[in-house]
Amino acid sequence: MPYPLIALGVIPAIAGSLRLVELAGGPHLLPANPRITASPVPVIVHIVGAVLYVILGAFQFSTGLR
Fold first, then answer.
1. How many distinct structural domains can be found in the chain?
2. In whole angstroms, how large is the CA radius of gyration of the chain?
3. Residue 29: which pLDDT band, with cuts at 50, 70 and 90?
4. For residues 54 and 13, what is the distance between their CA atoms, to the nearest angstrom?
5. Which residues constitute the domain of residue 54?
6. Can you say whether the dihedral through the CA atoms of 28, 34, 36, 41 is positive or negative?
7. What is the pLDDT of residue 50?
8. What is the DSSP letter of 59?
């Protein structure tokens, strides 16, 4: 079952989604980081890629998909 592995990625996914909300013009929920505001595209790609990796990577251990 991949669900425990997905559960390990929930907290970083929440933090990443808060950062995405902030970059989209929402309220500032996390501490300011001048590197992120100067170049937000790599951060957005990193967050989206990491969340996809956590979700899809956990399913590689599912016996039904092997």
1. 1
2. 14
3. confident
4. 9
5. 3-65
6. positive
7. 95
8. G
